[in-house]
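User: My instructor asked us to take a sequence, write out its structure as tokens, and then describe one feature of it. I'm not sure where to start. Here is the sequence I was given:
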Amino acid sequence: MSAEEALEAAILAVLAEDAVVAELLGDPLRVIGAGPAPAFPYLEVVRHESVEAGGAGVEATEHRIDLAVVCRDSGGARVRAAVAAVRTALGEAELAMTGWRCVLLVPLFSDAARSGVQVWRGLLRLKAVVEAL
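Assistant: Let's start with the prediction itself. The structure tokens for your sequence are:
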């Protein structure tokens, strides 16, 4: 499994197990791209960029991951609450990855904006550093 696949799987596993995230984004976790289009609200992995960051004989990669929460909401409060829950769950998490170890996972920023009539999109950008075991 690649570092990208392992990191995304570990992030989604943590979110699926968090009670607050499950309350807001469903149990099982509603993720777009994992089958038929899910009901609102749902989570989407929008972007995953990775670059080599190893040195001195250590295989490592640095990642920028954009997670989006898409919600039907007239004022945006629900999408902001869901983004905050995702940020909190990941901030307290220790990611379990096969063949890899996440040595850094920090949120860089979050934003929420209307993307249609009563549809809001919240974005959370994460930075991660992953090393091979």
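For the description part of your assignment, you could build on this observation: The chain has a mean pLDDT of 93. Try explaining in your own words what that tells you about the chain.
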